[in-house]
Amino acid sequence: PQSTHTKERKKERKKKERKKEERKKKRRNFSFPISNHPPSPIPFIIFYSAMAVSSHARLLSPTFDSRSSDPLLAVASAHRRNTYGRFAHEPKSVKGTVASHGLSSFPIFKFPPNFVRQLSNKARRNCSNIGVAQVVAASWSNNSSPSSSAAAAAASAVNTVDAAAAAAVPTASDAVALEGCVGNNESLKVEEKGLVDSRTSVFDSDGSVAIHAGERFGRGRADDAITTPVVNTSAYFFKKTADLIDFKEKRAVSFEYGRYGNPTTIVAEEKISALEGAESTLIVASGMCASTMMLLALVPAGGHIVTTTDCYRKTRIFIETMLPKMGITATTIDPADMNALEVALKENNVSLFFTESPTNPFLRCVDIKLVSEMCHRHGALVCIDGTFATPLNQKALALGADLILHSATKYIGGHNDVSPHVLAGCISGPLKLVSEIRNLHHVIGGALNPNAAYLIIRGMKTMHLRVQQQNSSGLKMARLLEAHPKIKCVYYPGLPSHPEHSLAKRQMTGFGGVVSFEVDGDLTTTAKFIDSLKIPYIAPSFGGCESIIDQPAIMDLNQTERLKYGIKDNLVRFSIGIEDFEDLKADILQALDAI
Asked: Where along the chain is composition biased (Basic residues) (predicted)?
């Protein structure tokens, strides 16, 4: 019996091996059967269409190794040389065509080995992983009837790809134009680098300016990308010594070193300048970097500044501990006390008035127009930190301030991104003043990396949508809290009970998404209320898509500091995100019911 069993197992094993060999042989010798009704060419049409689309899409990339003698490559090569310099990739000439299924004139490009190896046999057989879904979707979107046949969809896909390929192949005159510029606009010179005035009269609204400023007009861009490319480099080369000399002697504009400027960060700067109506903007690695750089650059040793009682704690620490080391003194006044400001201006040689408006955390507002007039009469500069207001809700420069500063991490970036991705600050104003700060920045450092600049640019494109929602939710939340019996008081400039409500209505178009309030209870009761909330995160910062809440008595200050600046144990700062207001309302009410 054992011998019989062994023989059966051997037979079974040989049978399996034969089947395996037959399968391998079939795969090696696969071909279409010859018949009167050949298989549908649709899979192959889609497959080769997708290959062509993928290849054409990679023609303009300086790193993709596509090989063909297509006439587009000659122009694309020249375009790359102009755009990327003498080290641009030069493609070799290899050509192939498909002689079946109506694609005899369609170019095929050789894919890099890694790309091919990464496709499994199954993926290649099913025409997946190479953009087929996009081709099919495009073909179906071009069909008016939802019942179009698969053959019609495939034909539409091929027509779409053929049209795109035909449009991509330039004429002789186009080739000449491509060598000198991007697109058909002669002002978009490929080799033209540096500062370009991004302000334009085309857009009347802040929302459109935030989307297009710095990107749409007057800037050459690799491969005509819609979004701004991230330029990750620490240094920039010059083609010859004469170019470097021209740059150093200011006869040519270019980039030199990452700390002195980057094409991506300059787009972010131009966007902010356009929103603020400023001549120039400097964007740096954090809001505190912007504040300290401004103070160090504009206040001379032995100078005097005026600031307000209500402000960001770290700014106060810098003013109280670091500036005295350079002989700089400070007078601190109430944000609304104009008499105290007049006295400080008369009794001291004031170099600068620096405050927030609205302030942190009580959201006090400073009369920017009046303060600017008073300070300018005495030769003092005015710098406003408008982080809580955003460039959309308040135009400090138009009201008379010399400089406007923002922590771009907050509303401008708008996504609660954290270091090292988006932690940024910016300062805008006249070219002369910003240049002084920029020169110090070149020495001290604190440059924003281009990836963070890209995220700032991305965030600004939705800022007007986010801020509108936060303005609306903030006002409704402030009214809800003020009417609740378990809330002692609410600090929000949009409420008539706010001490500067009339002023806020004059100089602001919206009141922001931060609401500060005091719970009717002690430190422990307030902490219980916060712990009962389900939507907001317990965290510092504000201005992002997600709601954030914190208790300043626990988050920031010791008891001595709290008493000094009037911050009580039951104070809460609520940064409202862009969640649905009804969800936030229900969450707040259930948390108040829990105490």
From this structure: 7-29
Residue with tokens 């955003």, as numbered in its chain: 390
Answer for the pair 397, 427: CB distance below 8 angstroms, yes or no.
no
* Stretch 481-491: mean pLDDT: 98
What pLDDT does residue 555 have?
80
Give me the mean pLDDT over the 516-544 stretch. 96
C-alpha separations of 44 from 49, 125, 135, 258 in Å = 8, 10, 13, 48
From 266, 268, 282, 271, select the one nearest 195 (Cα to Cα): 266
Q: Could you tell me if residue 81 is inside a domain?
A: yes
213 in any annotated domain: no
**What span, in angstroms and rounded, lies between the C-alpha atoms of 360 and 358?**
7
The strand pair at 381-385 and 329-333 is best described as: unpaired
Residue 236 within a domain: no
DSSP state of 54: H
How far is residue 360's CA from residue 387's CA, in Å, rounded to a whole number?
10
- Residue 290 · residue 427 · CB < 8 Å: yes
pLDDT at position 3: 61
User: For the purposes of burial, counting CB atoms within 10 Å of the CB of 201, is it exposed (0-12), middle (13-18) or buried (19 or more)?
Assistant: exposed
Q: pTM of whole model > 0.70?
A: no
Q: Tell me which of 180, 195, 227 is where a domain ends.
A: 180
d(CA 458, CA 85): 28
Domain count, the chain: 4
Greater confidence, 135 or 247? 247
pLDDT tens, residue by residue, 241-293: 999 999 999 999 899 999 999 999 999 999 999 999 999 999 999 999 999 99
| Helix, strand, or coil (residue 23) | helix
Residues 297 and 438 in one domain: yes
Residue 80 lies in a domain: yes
Give the pair of three-digit tokens for residue 30. Answer: 């696969």
- For 1, the domain range is 1-30
SS3 354: strand
Looking at residue 151, its pLDDT comes to 44
